[in-house]
Every structure is written in structure tokens, then in C-alpha cells.
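Query form — protein Glucuronosyltransferase

QUESTION: What is the three-dimensional structure of this chain?
INPUT:
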Amino acid sequence: HPNIKLFITQGVLRSMDEAIYAHVPMIGIPFYGDQPYNVRRMVSKGFGLELDHRTLDKETLKAAILEVANNPKYRNTLKRLAQLAQDQPMTGIEKAVWWTEYVIRHRGAKHLRSPLLDMPWYQYLLLDVIGVLLLAVLLILYVVYLIIRIVRSVLCKPFVNN
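ANSWER: The C-alpha cells for Glucuronosyltransferase are given below.
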């Protein structure tokens, strides 16, 4: 929306891409996963600021909002990045048509087909691997049980008096 002045994000890549496309500067407050990396890249590229959620307070947030919303360098950086991202040789429809024709030209494009589609279900779900690991654990437990039985029988032999 053209009236959006600022976007506060956790650093999810898809939402950041949309904000870049719309030329909306950001404040990133990452929590986990790839979010800290994404927000650090945003800061290094110059189109937003990072805030730490553990030390976040009212004054820090207000200062960051005023900085990002009022400083034109963030929006100018986004305009440049958006131009780079939007410079594509084909539109989305043209790409869809090209790929459809590609698949037709190559009779289904079997070379692009995922090998998972031809894999048995038990291999796809890794049940064969789980079975082998479970069997190995059971075998180890059985060997430990046998060793304990042998040690116990040797140590606990009743004394026979003749």
C-alpha cells in the first residue's frame, strides 16, 4: 500500500522480499532460525535497522521508527534494490508459457522429475534406515544382557563345601 511508511518484521525472508518490492523500509526484530542472518543482511545493505528483542524498550523502538521513517536513505536504497530485483527478461506469464512449452518439447521433461516419485514409500519415509538402526540397538542391548548374565553367573556361583 502506498501509505505504508515502515514495516516491522521478524526477518522472515518472504515478507522482506515483499517490502523491498514495495520500497518500504524495515525494522528487524529477529527471534530464531535464519531471521538474525536476514536482518543483519538488511542492515548491511542499508535498508533497515535491527533491534534486539531482549533489550527492547519504548524509547529505543520510537527512536528506530523515527529514524527509518524519516531518513530518505533507507527508501532510496530500497528503490535501487527493487530495480535490480525487478529487472527480469520475462514476465511471470511469459515464464509460465516458456516452461509449459519446454515440458511439451521434451515430452514431460523426465530429467526434471524428482527421484522421490519413483522411490518406494518405506524408503521415502526412511523406514528401512530406522529398521536397521533399531535392529542394531536391539542387538547391542542383547549382547549387553548376555555379558551381564555371564558375569553374574561367574560372580554369584554358590560355594560348594566338600
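ADDITIONAL NOTE: The CA atoms of residues 1 and 22 lie 8 Å apart.
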